[in-house]
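WARN retry 2 of 3 for item q-0093 after timeout on previous attempt; input resubmitted unchanged.
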Amino acid sequence: MKDNLSNIENQLLVMAAQDGDVEAMEKLVFRWQKKLWWYVFRLTSDDQAAWDITQQCWLQIIKGLNKLNDPACFKAWAYKIATNKSIDWLKSKNRNQHINLDSVEIDCYRKNDDLHVKELIQRLKNDSRVVLSLYYFEQLSITEISISREIKRLELRIAELDEKVKNK
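OK item q-0093 returned
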């Protein structure tokens, strides 16, 4: 119920911001700033770069918000922008580094399993790590990931990646 309410609030804020409501845009930034920063930080492993990239994301989000046809897609769209900006940064720095998943908050009851999963995920290629990070750690739905990554047949891709992780 809480997730549904939060999704509805996000959609209403997006629609209000699209209509020029500055306060609604400020609330969107407040709600999403930390989430996007943590995601970018996990991809880049660079504190300062994460802030710079997140700021670039917000500039693109603000500039393109009126082009977003479905306010329910805001979450996936914002993560798509963050992913693309992070990948651009990694490419510009000529880094093919592992995504740092160590900063993910871990439920104490699942700590050992989560650490093992993170270790296995870090062995995968960047694109695979992005998809699994969005799915497992950012908790985006398969539909949201397919929007954010523009991956066709995403369910099959996640199943393939799950199998790779299980076999390692």
